[in-house]
Amino acid sequence: MIVVGVDGSRAGMEAVCWAAREAALRGVPLRIANAIPAWACSTTQQGPYADVAAWMRDGAAAVLSAAAERARAEAPGVQVDTAILAGDPRPALIEAAVDADLLVVGNHGLGGFRGLLLGSVAYGVASHAPCDVVVVREVPAAPRPEIVVGIDASPACGKVLDFAFAEAALHGTGLRVVHAYRALEAGGGFAPLPDDFDEEKAEVRMVREAVAGRRELYPDVKVVEEVVRGHPVDVLRQASAGAELLVIGSQGRRGFTGLILGSVCQAMLHHATGPMAIVRTPSSTG
């Protein structure tokens, strides 16, 4: 099942469309959810706030009805249901996604401030959801038929690659595997590097080894390997511009215990130009 959160915003409707198409490709049902304050769900009797509560419930029902109609138009064969959730949308959506394969949200809701690139709901669910998350920005009118995945040398990158290869096969697109690295520096308490050490060759070899077995599992996916010396955020932003989807792990090899999202993941949440999938991976030090 795929769960998508809506609130009546344009970004929320973009998320519904993306989620409906994804549900069709995966052959799974779609649940569209909208959260309102808990008291509005429980206040049904006559009283000073009963009319306000009813107005909120009616508004949520209208938002869900419009979203469901759009989802069915986008993917006619998908089973769609709707749910009004009680409480703050962040914990409510996280709880609703406990048994889900994927949670989808727009990057910004109705309560966002102009100039902010990411809403609090999107950041909250990306940080705490029990499943993989896709944050949808406005999808390019004619996206490049390619999925971009950012990897590093952490053990968790295998899970990220599995997700990316599966998505490329589902969408019938190519896959660009991007690895950015920064030059190793001598000293710092580490043993000196051998004189004949070629850092670029070592990084290329790491990527090839990570991808090799998955090429055999997905022979129809055209793979491009890209190893670039530079900052991961700059490299990924450039590589993923115009692509159908960017895939990244929630934590990288430099993850610190206590941090919910890795620094590269956090930065790309703010700066990715299209839909971005966050694959749930544990911190390497956790």
TrEMBL record:
Pfam families according to UniProt: Usp
SUPFAM superfamilies, per database record: Adenine nucleotide alpha hydrolases-like (SSF52402)
Family indicated by similarity: Belongs to the universal stress protein A family.
UniProt cross-references to Gene3D superfamilies, sorted A to Z: HUPs
Location of the UspA domain: 2-137, 147-280
Record's protein name: Universal stress protein
Superkingdom, taxonomy of origin: Bacteria
